[in-house]
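Sequence dictates fold. Next comes a concrete instance:
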Amino acid sequence: MTNNEIIQSEYSAPSNIAIVKYWGKKGLQEPVNPSISFTLSKAKTTTKVSYEPCDRDLEIDFKFDRNRADVFLPKLHAFVERLLPHLPFLKSGILNIESTNTFPHSSGIASSASSMAALAKTLIDIQIKLDDQFKVSDLNKFRSRLARLGSGSASRSTMNGWVLWGETPVYNASSDKYGVDINKHVHESFKDLQDTILIIRKGSKAVSSTQGHQLMENHPYKEGRIKQANNNIQVLIEAFKSGDFESFSKVCEQEALSLHGLMMSSSPAYTLLAPESIRAIRRIQKFRDHQHVPLTYTLDAGPNIHLIYPSSQTHIIKPFIEEHLRPLCENSELIYDQLSLD
């Protein structure tokens, strides 16, 4: 290639939903507790990058859904600064980034995970194309490690299915630096899960994830939370081996409500649940108890609810969703998605 040849790359990455939550940081984007998530099938970010080598300091142009989005440039520059020791080409040149999501903004699906994972993949690919001598021993680990530098949860979006991120004694290959694929240890019954996302409220969260993690630094329940998360990792790993949906469900719901409890007991305190969130949870519990179906839920740091159930139960659960849960959603909006192993 010539010195000024433009290099292009395009990758997609899925969003993920954590069952055991990552909440609190240490060092450079490392978790204070391990987490486990699964990636979604339909909710993805696709990122196209073109790079033009030149002698000037790196310039970044960013478009989201074909529109300039300069509001994201500070975060992108910070990400690139962290990547520079690993991807030397980022020292100079012109970087044009175009990003699109398959899901709407503020829909209860984490876009930072999928966007940073997709971007990390493209930038690594460009480095490889530019330098024939550039080698990594494990590309999957390298992608996850670099994606983590942009967003911690992005470390779990560089691969598909069930991913564990964070050191834990119950899994020897675990690491604070990158996520690991644990699908081979997961019972088949946990590989066809549906995730129906109830859009209870749209719009930006009252507190960003970055702020939320910072609030954990001096939280009075920090040590108890770390212990709880580690215990739940162990319970979840055992449930995965045996196909125990009831134990899985208990962890799902305890983790979701604990996350919101931590926010409500932080300083300053935040209440991110909406009245409709509580109503939906009560309807879910009542329906489950009456129908005796494998059905559970989780939430991220917001009011929207992820309803999780095996695909074999869709014929029973979907009518319930449409009649009793969709009316609680803003503009009756919800998203039918599922776990992705592809």
